[in-house]
Amino acid sequence: MTSSTQAPRRGSILVLNGPNLNLLGTREPAIYGSATLDDVATLTAAAANAAGFGAECIQSNHEGDLVDALHGARGTAVAIIINAGAYTHTSVAIRDAIAAVELPAVEVHISNVHQREEFRRHSYLSAVCQAVIVGAGIHGYELAVSYLDKTLP
Ligand SMILES: O=C1C[C@@](O)(C(=O)O)C[C@@H](O)[C@@H]1O
Asked: In which pathway does it act (predicted)?
């Protein structure tokens, strides 16, 4: 899924969602809620636009696609918001791509991963992200935009 908004005064934020997040709304609603990925894209783009940013929202179930999207952000985006889903806990490649593009990145998780299985408590991405937001539901994406609004020119 891809969506975008235009004319960003402060540049565009790449909003990247990883595997299974396309199923938001029907996937384990007791954990992830009833909002869909389209709802996430809409609220994130609205928050970004209100702060003078554009938002390009991309979702993929494939690790290499996420790496490619991160590479594409170099020179086209001013920041990254990433929920890498399960790849958070496994992917050195996504970690390295975030580090390589040298853009401010915010890691978001809808659920509170620290209240869940042990394997979800470690993130390969947190060390290369400026901020980590977990357990705020889909409002975590808005909080990520708010952080970027406060910290970027
Ligand atoms: O797919 C996901 C979603 C998630 O990133 C979250 O947003 O809470 C948490 C991950 O552990 C899980 O694999």
From this structure: Metabolic intermediate biosynthesis; chorismate biosynthesis; chorismate from D-erythrose 4-phosphate and phosphoenolpyruvate: step 3/7
CB of 61 sitting under 6 A from ligand 1: no
Instruction: Please tell me which residue in 62, 71, 87, 109 is annotated as part of the active site.
Output: 109
Which among 114, 111, 117 has a CA at the least distance from the CA of 135? Answer: 111
Pocket test for ligand 1, best of 16, 27, 60, 88 (most atoms within 8 A of CB): 88
Structural domains in the chain, CATH included, are 22-56+76-151 (3.40.50.9100)
Look-up: residue for tokens 């539901």? Answer: 137
List of residues 6+ apart from 26 with CB closer than 8 A: none
pLDDT of residue 76: 96
pLDDT, tens digit, 9 for 90 and up, residues 84-97: 999 999 999 999 99
Place of tokens 């020179």: 75
| Atom 3 of ligand 1: nearest residue by CA position | 85
Reported as a single tens digit per residue, the pLDDT across 27-84 is: 999 999 999 999 999 999 999 999 999 999 999 999 999 999 999 999 999 999 999 9
Protein residue with least CA distance to atom 13, ligand 1: 86
